[in-house]
Records
---
Amino acid sequence: EVYFKNLSKQKQKEVMEKNGSNHKLRVCVATCNRADYSKLAPIMFGIKAEPQFFELDVVVLGSHLIDDYGNTYRMIEQDDFDIHTRLHTIVRGEDEAAMVESVGLALVKLPDVLNRLKPDIMIVHGDRFDALALATSAALMNIRILHIEGGEVSGTIDDSIRHAITKLAHYHVCCTRSAEQHLIAMCEDHDRILLAGCPSYDKLLSAKNKDYMSIISMWLGEDVKTRDYIVALQHPVTTDIKHSIKMFELTLDALISFNKRTLVLFPNVDAGSKEMVRVMRKKGIEHHPNFRAVKHVPFDQFIQLVAHAGCMIGNSSCGVREVGAFGTPVINLGTRQTGRETGENVLHVRDADTQDKILHALQLQFGKQYPCSKIYGDGNAVPRILKFLKSIDLKEPLQKKFCFPPVKDNISQDIDHILETQSALAVDLGGTNLRVAIVSMKGEIVKKYTQLNPKTYEDRLALILKMCVEAASEAVNVNCRILGVGISTGGRVNPREGIVLHSTKLIQEWSSVDLRTPISDALHLPVWVDNDGNCAALAERKFGHGKGIENFVTLITGTGIGGGIVHQHELIHGSSFCAAELGHIVVSLDGPECLCGSQGCIEAYASGIALQREAKKLHDDDLLLVEGMSMKEEEIVSAAHLIQAAKLGNVKAEGILRTAGTALGLGIVNILHTVNPSLVILSGVLANHYVNAVKDVINRQALSSVKTVDVVVSNLADPALLGAASLVLDYTTRRIY
């Protein structure tokens, strides 16, 4: 800790020397409404407290300057900040067109202000349309932008605006680890992202012990007790105004029926707010004895009100963010905050056709006390932000850089490029062999390479890279354009991260292996990884019997038994990437032991390993060979010998194959009763030997409603490689995987 503190001090010292020892960072903070000021004020106080490092200019615009919304610029003056500029930017009308015109008006007025102030950096908060105008102006005028609360997810148009500001901003202060990861995923420079927490939490976490009864009395009446009133704050949803007004009407009806003292704050200036105010007045809220309707409450007092309320209801971000710090119950209405991280104190009512659902939510939540949540901060955001500001080097290039994932270098557009065949590198990791192929968009295997699969992780990965590099070089000679690398491997795979979680016993040293990163770094190509059974299903979906089929199942019958399930045209992976482990469906409680450690699995009866085991038993008892068969002394007994013996009339071999086919058929009946596919595809070297037995079991054991299912044998010569290729070809061309 001491080391990093000293390192930070040294960096700040170097930055001061670069910027000029006497140069103070000129910071412009622009605030548009009461909500963003509650987040910006703690930062402004921090900047003001360090005049040796900073010069602060405050610009006020938006609804701060409108009487109907409380003239909230006054609280900035009460906090003893000098307002450098007031810009009237709101075009009244409270509809979509007025929002657009307000952005345009702000864009017209801001350049003159920024030319006069010449700030080194502008601090912009959140996701409001006013903030978009601020960020656009600053970016076009080559002013560095620090964006507060980027990377978060919510509903309505706010999401799009927030992410647009992120793209314009040079530096980012985020509140949660998820938000930080979202920013990184959006290709923002990790070195310019600060995970600080929410600045308002610096006030929140020290606020609850202050005198609050006088504040409650002032806003709700002297007869109101703590935990016996409601705070309601609901805004219009700009992407569905009509529905949000209907929900607001239902909310007021529910609050009237609930019959508790309620503080109702007027909505913000978004499109639809005028209609919401009309609803309030139509229902007589401003004159109802149980309601107090107000345009604005100072943030310090608002904190006390929500901290000691019996419940907060509405769709304000305050409800899902700040209120969690006190454990106050919250009812979040509608879609405006969809995607926000929330504590256990939040109960969501996504949709409501009547007031009953909201009323029931009030009955469930009112008066409860939940554990305090610190998802959005620990009370130390401002010191981190000030430290971050001091570390900004003004001599660094202004042009921001995006950290895109590695991709193949662009090549000039010429006739050879146009005529190239779009292709994929497909890798199949089997228990014995390692294969790499160039596969065209039509499913043609243009070139294939095969090597024995090494026993150790290091040798295996080195061989994969060597074979892929060789294949990629050869692709140029055969006029193929490689779009990416698809890998099919045994075991349980996390396809989102490209990691083999657990391997089968057939592939050693192959658990918790990140395949995507080293191969992508080496080849500069995107890489996809999935389980071999899933890849077989994808191969059928793109090139085989499953093409155009909405619901089907593929089973691989080979050394082991695997498979994949396609439901509504999409592959099912499951919550822990363990779906479609079809070989481990148990069909007998006291059957033979399986490699997985269980007993009676399909794989313990019908896999190549299981048949080889039974063949060895017959051979050891001199019951395998019949007339027409011969084996050399050193020859290893295999499943093929069992199949040959059965064809030549060996009754015991026939019985083993019949039992294996029955076990496979029973497993498929279970699948039919579970996911009800319209097609079952048998793939692998044993498929032809099992297909008739499977159909017989279905006719005898399945419910009549699923007996009509088609059971076919795959016509694909190499489903593992074709499936690995389809991982790439489907995603890069149609983005459906």
---
Amino acid sequence: SLVVLFGATAGAYGAKLGSDERELILLVWQVVDLHSKKVGTLHKSLVKADNLDLSDQCREVSGLTPEGLGKAEPLDRVLQQFSQLVSSDLKVLGRSSYTLCSDGQLLIRQVLHPETSKKNFLLSDCFYTFYDLRKEFHTCYPSSAAVKDQTIKTMAEYLGLATDEAEEDFGVWQVKTMVAIIFSMLSEGCNHVFTEPETVKYKYETGPCSKSETVDSETVIRARGLPWQSSDQDIARFFKGLNIAKGGVALCLNSQGRRNGEALVRFVNSEQRDLALERHKHHMGSRYIEVYKATGEEFLKIAGGTSNEVAQFLSKENQVIIRMRGLPFTATQEDVLGFLGPECPVTGGKEGLLFVKYPDGRPTGDAFVLFSCEEYAQNALKKHKEILGKRYIELFRSTAAEVQQVVLNRYMSTPLIPTLPTPIIPVIPPPYTIATGSIRDCVRLRGLPYTAGIDDILEFMGDATGDIKPHGVHMVLNQQGRPSGDAFIQMKSADKAFMVAQKCHKKMMKDRYVEVFQCSGEEMNFVLMGGTLNRSGLSPPPCKLPCLSPPAYAAFQTAAVIPAEAAALYQPQALLPTTRTPQASAAAPPAVTYYPAQAAQLYMNYTAYYPSPPVSPTTVGYIAAPPGAVAAAASATHTPILPQPGALVRMQGLPYNTGMKEILSFFQGYQYAPDDYNGLIQLSDQARSVLQAPKEWVCL
């Protein structure tokens, strides 16, 4: 038997059903006996949504009102009634089993599964297998329209069935027409057999991924804006109803081995990927998640691995993986097993532990642990921040992809200091320095695609490009010399900047909308130094140094610098050896130059050394400058590099929310002399005033 099912939400209808995250408000169904060609009672049930604000399209198409829905039952009660009434109808028809049949996949995959997942109740097993009437119809009638173009009305018209929707209530006509279509497919001329149902996976399966594996780019998406503590199971829950490939969730890490709020997700086919893209800006808790297309190459870069040690560790399937961070460097397997205790036994004992090490064999303080069930993993997570030796240990959920990424890509194959890019390169030369002052003749572009270039920005600006100052487009790069998604543009006047902000705000560039804010040169510098700027105003930066820039993945090999005033505050050449500088490709300038030369890109500073795990002492140590660099700096300034030997201290293990006030309070009672640092670098008056301000002192 089939149970023909139709539903509607309080929002979009048709091809966009479920894309706006609106709740279900209507279910209509009828049992069909395929052998006797008899039908059961047609049932129509309204569903009371938490939000009864109906869209205009919903009101027009369905004729439903908030008042009528307010008297209905909630979804969990309606689904209970559904199961009871279907069982009753089957008993009347002399049948015991059934499979759902819906018009396409959206109702099951994009509405019912995501909504019940968010409301924390389980769907019955019948909702994990169903027939897609559109696919079955196209199989039966190959000359009909493509599956994606099919609707109930077009299928009925193809068969010559009556299509007057006005004769029946909304939902009733749809179910009756679907039943008539099924009977036509069962007629002697067709004799169609329903044999290959669609399936929804009950749970996400973990597993390793090899770099030699072929990954279809049409099956991969990138999710952005994830909570940092989200696991692969949380991401699978966000995409509930869609089939993710085994081991298909890869959490992205930054250069410190920490999650950066992004993940690459691989689905079983392109159809599932296309449905996933419709969940762009759906919510995970209180956060909205951005969903974009990605490539198989990007997925393998994050998730792929070939280490025998990792492969052996991940060979035990369907295990829960926990990451331990901050372990003492002397910790042994016995110490870790003793820390976890008998209440959370590790799968395979010592074989279920994997310590992360640097290329020279030194421990990093990280380890991964396997547990056979969720109960044991939950017991382990309860030990978060308990003490082992003299250290507190952090425990987090992890994934197979994260194991491979941390062990292979981050620690085992990444050199520490020699290959890091030069933190600072020459300062923007006059006359192309960033303007200062309070005149709001600049605009900030936020949310640019990482592949966007100068030409894309000029095309985005349209007619307003004629109002851009020469050398007035500044791409903001991160520490790797890649686009950060931000850009600043200097306009010829404040009026021009205002017009651009009004005209271009949230205008689309490629597949993303871009936010455009009017700002001044002073505000621009504030943003580069860690402040925030939006239409509500400016929030000042927490300190006077540039803030971290989010990692990006698109290749953009170009030199990058910071404005002169910011560069004066931070010259690591006195502390770090000379490192490799990326070579920028030369390009012929256009007739009208809207942007600075390659060396005039803005720079959002990042850490200048490869960090050790959190709450762990560094294994990099202090790096002295080469004697030649010290001598050159001393001869240039005619003053000592430091006021006296050992005058600099370096602090590690700081809480991440530490500010300047907390650091100064920590050193209360000790005398520091910011004036003495004038001999370290050439300072402008503005930079010197920053260093001399006690409450805004900069730690170098």
